[in-house]
Structures are given as structure tokens and as C-alpha cells.
Amino acid sequence: MIENGTIMQYFEWYLPADGKLWKQVALEAAKLKNAGITGLWLPPAYKGAAGKNDTGYGVYDLYDLGEFRQKGSVRTKYGTRQEYLAALEELRKQGINVYADVVLNHKIGADEVEEVSAAEFNENSRYQMIGDDKVIGAWTKFTFPGRKGKYSDFTWNWKHFDGIDWDQKRAKRALYKFSGKEWNEEVDDENGNYDYLMGADIDFNNREVFEELVRWAVWYIQTTDADGFRLDAVKHIPASFYRDFLTRVRELTGKELFAVGEYWSGDVKVLLDYLGNIQGEASLFDVPLHYNFYHCSKAEGRYDLRTILDGTLVQQDPLRAVTFVDNHDTQPGQALESWVDDWFKPLAYALILLRRDGYPCVFYGDYKGIPHDKIKSKKTMLDKLLKVRKTKAYGAQHDYFDDPDCIGWTREGDEEHKDSGLAVVISDGRGGTKRMYIGKHFAGAHFSDVMGNAKYNIKIDEEGFGEFYVNRSAAAVWVRRETKQ
Q: Is residue 357 annotated as part of the catalytic site, yes or no?
């Protein structure tokens, strides 16, 4: 029997740097499976420049999964290589897919400075050069002395990068492009060209770079048996790189390898263009949908709920849309902060978990809470929705997006999942009742709201319709009431 797939992003930015996450994953694998989680997006598992304190995006050594004493520690923020592999084994036993966070845009924490001819460029207009070429001190030599060539003897030098943001000679921060290099094309056009993001920016036009990153990815899959990748910062990397990279890694590993890219843009046309450029080799996170949720949560009831899915990836390319409510970048205090207000979380999660389209991703910070910002766990609410997704959210879908303050939809269920089928009504204002068709096969059946907002049950009429209702600023999820034996 096929169950609906659901990802969980199993980390948030402010997790304690105590090296315990991999152990926690192993201990919770069975509970996560039982809750309805079928895939885990785990944080970067390799050594960052800040060692045991690095969240994982300050990439230093892709081959060090918490095995070598580098950057002041053996373990990473989340644990050791042995603990990581043990956690993945527990997840495999439970049938949970593992999606590894892959950060290939840049490297940070070089082992040596190199003298490189470079010119300063305008950070807000990347094709505008400021002054003449000069020799700078660039942190671009990565030799990984702690690893001593184990797994790979490849070392990185300035030729593998196209720019950097620090001149050690002058102790000056600025955007420098190396002489003889050009910014990578096929990237986002913000700032004229958004190739450069941070650190030593990898030059994807260099063939040695492509070959080494493919070798690393094959090694990683063979070592971990991961089922796919979450691709970081793809708007800063040429689309053709990931098109060719994913194709090659799949060929060499013989694995299907699901991949989802983080292209941070609220413009669905930009996302669709990118998907065309990579020729369907990956999915994308539905950033426009996240922003719709965010704006609705801030609108104090003045948002037109009929438009909640307008301009979203899940609406226009549902098979390539990974839907989410919040993540580690949108949580309070982060660069892309756009935290969806708590009152709207049940409505937003109902929209991604209980509808037909999209591959939904639940955020650890919602499920577990974020102590750093005194944000409480929403586990009770999410467990209810996850259970309904796992057992009830199947069959034909009927939408009733016909009122600016109150919308709903139904799923008829199917024969494969016993007693499946549901009705959802959400309101950002006064609440209301919607007459919705759920299927003649439910005629005479009683339905109740698993969210506990609606206090009395309803009965489906002979034509398969029910008068489903919701209270003010809430989500009601109606499922067939189990008859007492």
C-alpha cells in the first residue's frame, strides 16, 4: 500500500552545538515513521570552517563527516561520522528516505593564503569594476592537512575559484574577481549577476571542479546510501552545472536520487525558467507559496483566501514543487526572516499536507519549537495533520475556493486506504459553513473535526454533500467518525 510522502527538515538554525543530533535522529527514527514522516532532510554533515560550532553552510571539507581533527574538533555540530552513519542505518530500517544537504557554491576556512591578481567589483552591480587589477592575499588554498589525502587527494587553489570577499594583504573586505576569470553565467540576475554569495566562490567553468564534485558525490552516496540531495543556493550556481552534475551522479551510482533545490525567489516565473534550464533534473522549494502564507498571516483577516495558491509552484508545476511553511532561513533572526505567525500555522500546514499536489516538508522548528526565540512546539497540531495525511488524504479532490474569508476542499478517499477521505475548511476571519461534496459512498456517515475546533458532528446527505464548518481564524479537518464496536 502506497502512503503519501512527507519530508521533515530535521534541524533549525539555533540547535545547540552539543554533537547530539545524529544520536537523536537514531532514537527517534521509529517515532518519525509512525507519525507519517517518509523522508528526512538532514543538515550538512561535513566539516565547516567553524568546526563543531558550524551549522554546516560554511563549507570547509566535504569529505570530513566528523572523522578528522580539523577546525578545532573531530565531530561536527551534529556528531561524528560513526554516529551519522548509524543514524542513517536506523532511518533505513524504518524505510525513511534521507536527503543530504549539499552546499557546493563556496568554500570557507582555507588552509593557506595565495597571492592572486584581482580587481574590486561593485557588490550591487557585479559587472562594474572598481579600480585596476592588483595582487591580493586570497584564502583559496585548501589542503586539508588533518585528513592527509584520505578519500581524495584533491587540493583546491585559486584557479578553482572566481572571486572572494577578503584581501589578507590589506585586511580589507570587498568583492574581488580574479584576473582572467568571469562570473559564472546562468545564475540569478540580482545585482546584475548573483554568482558570488560568500567565501571563496567556486568556478563552475573549471572542468577539474566538475570532475571533483562528481567524484565526491559518488563517494558520498556510496558511503552513506543517501536517497537524494537538498541543493543549497542554486540561484548562485549555473543551471547547466546541476543539470549535468545530477545526470552524471545518477549514472555512476545507479540510483534515482531525488533532488530539491533552494532557489530563493518569490517569482514563480523565475522558478519555472530554472526548472526548464535544468531540464527537470530537480524539484524546487515553493518559495512563492511560503510568502503567500507569510503575507496572509500578517494581514489581520484582510487577505483574499481565494488567491492563497495563486502564483505558486504547486499550482503551476505540482510534480516539481516541494511545499513548506517555514525553514531555517525564514525563522526569526535569519537573513530571509519571514516567519509565518503561529495562529496561521494550522491553516498553512493543512494546505500543504492535506491537498493532492506537492511534496510537503515539515519544519523541525515548528515540530519541536525554537527555544532560542521562545517559540513553542506545535507537535500536537502537526501530529494530527500528519496522521490524517498518512491515513485519509487520498482520492479525488474538490475545491471550494469561493469566499475571500473561508475556503475548503474535500478528498473522496480510495479503496486502498480504508475509511480514507476528508474535508477541510479554513478561515482567516469570521469562520463559516461550506456545503461540499465528499462522495455518495459516504451518504449517512458521520464526520467529526480532528482539530477540535468544531464541537458537534455532521452527517453526509444522500447526494454525498455535507455542511462542513469552521470557527474563526482556524482550520477544521473533518474525517469519518469511527463507530464504536
A: no
Active-site residue (options: 195, 232, 317, 412)? 232
Contact 331, 370 (CB under 8 A): yes
Closest to 321 measured CA to CA, from 278, 285, 277: 285
Q: Strands 200-202 and 258-261: what pairing?
A: unpaired
66-106 pLDDT, tens digit per residue, is 999 999 999 999 999 999 999 999 999 999 999 999 999 99
Global pTM reads: 0.97
Euclidean distance between CA atoms 252 and 218, whole angstroms: 7
Please write the tens of the pLDDT for every residue from 251-282.
999 999 999 999 999 999 999 999 999 999 99
Using DSSP's 3-state secondary structure scheme, residue 379 falls into helix
Q: How far is residue 376's CA from residue 368's CA, in Å, rounded to a whole number?
A: 7
Catalytic residue among 201, 262, 326, 366: 262
Q: Which residues contact 326 (CB under 8 A, 6 or more apart)?
A: 290, 338, 339, 340, 363, 365, 366
Residue among 314, 358, 361, 393 at smallest CA distance from 7: 361
403 included as an active-site residue? no
End-to-end CA distance of the chain, in Å? 26
